[in-house]
Specification:
The complex is a heterotrimer. Chain B is mainly alpha-helical. Chain B contains 13 helices and no strands. Chain B has one domain: ABC transporter involved in vitamin B12 uptake, BtuC, CATH 1.10.3470. Chain C folds into 2 domains: 152 residues, Rossmann fold; 124 residues, Rossmann fold (3-Layer(aba) Sandwich), CATH 3.40.50.1980. The chains are: A alpha/beta, B mainly alpha, C alpha/beta.
């Protein structure tokens, strides 16, 4: 499935956070959304997963405008992993992942053995199967994040949206998560902080600054020192990493 | 995952609750201010239901015995069940809707709205302000109108300036409640040209004392409709509990659902308040208590809480009827808080409740 | 010389008796009555002379003033527009009213009264304040004995004591003594008549309004509840409070009095109370309900005190034992 935004502008509390942003995620692509804090990445993503409504522009899933798609349908096409939040209510890990199946359920449907199988598989993929009976609130930050990823996977959508999914993770889990995501064969749109990740994981990137899309293209094509200076306001040097043989960015103080 | 053991335990709990409820109703009818033999009590009920006269009861089916058992006690006992179930249900739904385990059915200002409506009706009088149909309306009508009017006001207030969030909802409830109390007090104050004996406090302490079969109709219908409806919604409610964003990403239209749930809960609570006044603590405490047994999954929590609410209130009413000195009754609101507060404390101390967050 | 001495003695005797007479005239004052503060503690109030500037703070006192023709001593009376007996209407209109006796400290003080006739609740914190402050201001407070159970022990005798207080304060004891005597005679008469009956009737005094969730019963701890006893019947409730329908059925009273303590006592109000009470199906087998022996009395007739209490007792007696 393709996701397209055309000239989307979003205001929050009267202030325009995103200004005429146009991005595109083609089916099966892994697309990165980068930019410094406050550049509007999260806000733009929120409009895509329908938590915010844009004041201008349109958002299309496969050429169908988002308003025309019922909410439950959206949840079958798009799954989202955000920063975990503290829940006011207690649930087990398995219960939370099981809820990922609900977009596919009608009102009075029961949970089927198929659902349970999918939940097990998804927990396995994120290495949380052993903790499936634990209460969510007793998990560490990284563990919680992985559970949310499992839930998103259980939704069995063709596109995944992630808003800084690796922020609170230990390096081991950061890498693990990114590998899981890469091997998914789904379209992925993820907002990331670490520009270095772009080279390893993204087929395409959009760079945002002050609510606008500053540049977009293949990472190796468009990420250069001039862009970094312009968007992140720091000096840098891009070199070929002798170990990974991928471009790496060295930020200069 | 769906632990076989857990499922069994749950159904055992449900069976226990249903049985407990039936037995309690049977027991409750046999106690009261007037000492009646169980034979007389059950013989009368049996006769009324099946026409079978077990013999030995004078004037079966009529007279004071019949009136006490069938016209006074039985409706009262059933009303305590219906109200208990209704308030527990309203409470557990409210908690999910505002995503706050400390919410109760009155969080939308319903109780102050009902009081304001009742105060208006008594002190100013519908017949002096309106004509036609509205002039002949009773207190319960205005109480109901007040309760609903206030909920609408709270909705609107909390939707100003953007999305309705749960904190805005709770704050609006507090604000509107205070405004209603202020107005009630103004009306009462301005009407003090006579002695200050009468006050409109009868709503503050609920009571099932004057329950009749007639009065039971509306609350029962409201309860059945709401219970049936919310049973179909448990899956969605569970998702709502994950948080606004998560729920949206899972395909839930939060705003619409919240509105529908709140309207239904408001209606249910308003009907109950206008039938028997304000009974506190039930809607707040019963869901918490049950969470310790069933967890937060509303597929179990909802039916269990509802049934237990009925069970709890039957016994609270038995206590209200029998523990008073020299045949006087204790207002049921006092019983529910007297039991509720300590139990709540115990639960919190044992940390057996299903709150999220760090201990 | 003897004649002169005799005359002198006679003159002195005359002078002495004359002055004795004069003293006898003034010997009524100072006079002391007992009233009660908000905590129901007795307080002695002394009057050194007949007050000429009095305020009646409540309509029950209004009516007592009219009854004993004390109009000329009133500088203001309580506003009770909705509830003035016909026979006093003109006199009521003629006297100045004081607005809101319950919270109008300044208004009361500005009238410079010597005495304020009120209720126990007048001297609550959030009303006119401490009774002793008023005494300090030289405004003597007199509280109606059975208002909010001010004397701690409400009874018809306490009500008659209000009359006695009035008699002492305004030096009209001949009138008030006569009233009290007549009242007591009537009360004794009732008790004698009833003693000769096989069994006295059982009567409950209840309060119930449309929309209420409980029924209230007035017990013999209160003046209102005692009026049933005074009227020669039995009131089985000792302590006032909520009563369950079952208990009413168990007591099975012969007659029921419904008190209307609402703000108004119109035909519609009475109808509303009557209908609401009869909607309590569970009571249908009770003697009083079956035989439609349920009567509504407005609050003013059966609460607090004043000139309506005694006639009300007689009225209730006649109703209960009318054959």
């Amino acid at each position: 499935m393709d996701i397209t935004t055309k000239g989307v502008s979003i205001k929050l509390s009267g202030k325009e956070i995103v200004h005429e942003a146009s991005i595109r995620v083609r089916g099966g692509q892994m697309v990165g959304l980068f930019g410094p804090n406050g550049s509007g990445k999260s806000t733009l993503l929120k409009s895509i997963y329908r938590v915010l409504k844009p004041q201008a522009g349109e958002i299309l899933f496969d050429d169908i405008p988002l308003e025309q798609i019922p909410r439950q349908e959206t949840a079958k096409k798009l799954a989202v992993v955000t920063q975990f939040t503290t829940l006011n209510f207690e649930f087990k890990v398995s219960e939370i992942v099981l809820m990922g199946r609900s977009p596919h359920k009608k009102l009075l449907d029961k949970d089927t053995p198929e659902d349970f199988r999918i939940v097990r598989e998804c927990l396995e993929k994120v290495n949380m199967l052993g903790l499936s009976d634990r209460k969510f609130s007793t998990l560490s930050g990284g563990e919680k994040q992985r559970v949310l990823l499992a839930r998103a996977l259980a939704q069995e959508t063709s596109v995944l949206v992630l808003d800084e999914p690796t922020n609170h993770l230990d390096i081991k889990y950061q890498l693990q998560t990114m590998e899981i995501i890469r091997n998914l064969n789904k379209g992925v749109l993820l907002a990331l902080h670490d520009l270095n990740m772009a080279f390893r994981y993204c087929d395409y990137v959009f760079i945002m600054k002050d609510g606008r899309v500053e540049a977009h293209g293949k990472p190796e094509d468009i990420i250069d020192e001039a862009l970094i200076r312009n968007v992140y306001e720091v000096e840098s040097r891009i070199y070929e990493n002798p170990v990974t043989h991928l471009p790496s960015i060295a930020f200069l103080p | 995952m769906q632990n076989k053991r857990e499922v069994t335990l749950f159904w055992m709990l449900m069976a226990g609750l249903v049985f407990g409820l039936i037995l309690s109703i049977i027991f409750a009818v046999s106690v009261g201010a007037v000492a009646l033999s169980p034979r007389d009590v059950y013989g009368t009920i049996l006769y009324r239901l099946t026409g079978w006269d077990i013999g030995g009861i004078e004037n079966i089916g009529e007279g004071p015995l019949f009136d006490i058992v069938w016209i006074i006690r039985l409706p009262r006992v059933i009303m305590s069940v219906v109200v208990g179930m209704g308030l527990a249900l309203a409470g557990v739904i409210m908690q999910a809707t505002v995503q706050n385990p400390l919410a109760d059915p009155y969080v939308l200002g319903l109780s102050s709205g009902a009081s304001l409506g009742a105060t208006f009706s008594i002190m100013i009088g519908a017949s002096s302000v309106f004509t036609g149909f509205l002039a002949n309306t009773g207190i319960a009508f205005w109480g109901f109108l007040g309760a609903l009017g206030v909920s609408v006001l709270v909705f609107l207030l909390s939707s100003i300036g953007g999305r309705m969030t749960t904190s805005k909802l709770i704050l609006s409830g507090v604000v509107v409640s205070s405004i209603c109390s202020a107005f009630s007090n103004i009306i009462i104050y301005l009407n003090q040209d006579k002695s200050d004996i009468q006050s409109v406090t009868f709503w503050t302490f609920g009571s099932f004392s004057t329950a009749t079969w007639e009065k039971l109709r509306l609350p029962t219908i409201a309860l059945v409709v709401c219970f049936a409806f919310f049973l179909t919604q448990v899956r969605r409610i569970n998702i709502m509990l994950l948080g606004d964003e998560a729920a949206t990403t899972l395909g839930i239209d939060l705003n619409r659902l919240r509105r529908v749930y709140m309207v239904l809960t408001a209606l249910l609570t308003a009907v109950i308040v206008c039938t028997c006044g304000i009974v506190g603590f039930v809607g707040l405490m019963i869901p918490h208590f049950m969470r310790a047994f069933t967890g937060s999954d509303y597929r179990r929590l909802l039916p269990a809480t509802t049934l237990f609410g009925g069970l709890f209130l039957i016994w609270a009413d038995i206590a209200a009827r029998t523990l008073g000195a020299s045949g006087k009754e204790i207002p049921i609101g006092i019983i529910t808080s007297a039991i509720g507060a300590p139990v709540f404390m115990i639960i919190m101390l044992r940390r057996a409740y299903g709150f999220g967050g760090r201990d | 010389m003897k004649l002169a001495k005799l005359t002198l003695c006679a003159l002195v005797a005359l002078a002495l008796s004359l002055s004795a007479l004069a003293f006898a005239e003034d010997a009524h004052y100072p006079v002391t009555i007992t009233t009660y503060d908000y905590a129901k503690t007795p307080v002695e109030i002394t009057f050194n002379e007949k007050p000429t500037r009095a305020i009646s703070g409540q309509e029950i006192w209004n009516e007592m003033m009219f009854y004993f023709d004390l109009d000329e001593y009133m500088v203001a009376i309580a506003n009770s527009d909705s509830n003035v007996p016909e026979e006093y209407k003109e006199r009521y209109d003629a006297l100045p009213k004081i607005s809101d006796t319950w919270h109008n400290k300044e208004g009361i003080v500005s009238l410079e009264p010597q005495v304020f006739f009120g209720w126990r609740s007048h001297f609550a914190e959030d009303s006119l304040g401490d009774i002793y402050e008023w005494i300090d201001r030289d405004i003597q407070p007199v509280v109606l004995n059975c208002s909010n159970n001010a004397c701690g022990n409400s009874s018809v005798q306490a009500v008659l004591q209000d009359f006695d207080n009035l008699g002492k304060i305004f030096d009209i004891q001949d009138k008030t003594d006569a009233y009290i005597a007549e009242a007591n005679a009537m009360l004794d008469n009732i008790q004698e008549n009833v003693a000769q009956l096989e069994a006295p009737k059982t009567v409950l005094m209840l309060e119930y309004y449309d929309g209420d969730t409980t029924v209230y019963a007035w017990g013999t701890n209160s003046l209102s509840g005692q009026m049933i006893t005074n009227a020669g019947a039995v009131n089985p409730i000792d302590m006032q409070g909520d009563i369950s329908l079952e208990e009413i059925v168990a007591i099975n009273p012969d007659k029921i009095i419904l008190m209307n303590a609402g703000n108004s006592d119109t035909e519609e109000d009475r109808e509303s109370i009557y209908n609401a009470f009869y909607a309590l199906e569970g009571l249908r087998s009770v003697e009083a309900v079956k035989n439609e022996q349920v009567r509504i009395y407005p609050l003013d007739d059966i609460y607090g005190g004043g000139i309506r209490i005694i006639p009300a007792i007689e009225d209730i007696y006649n109703w209960i034992y009318a054959e």
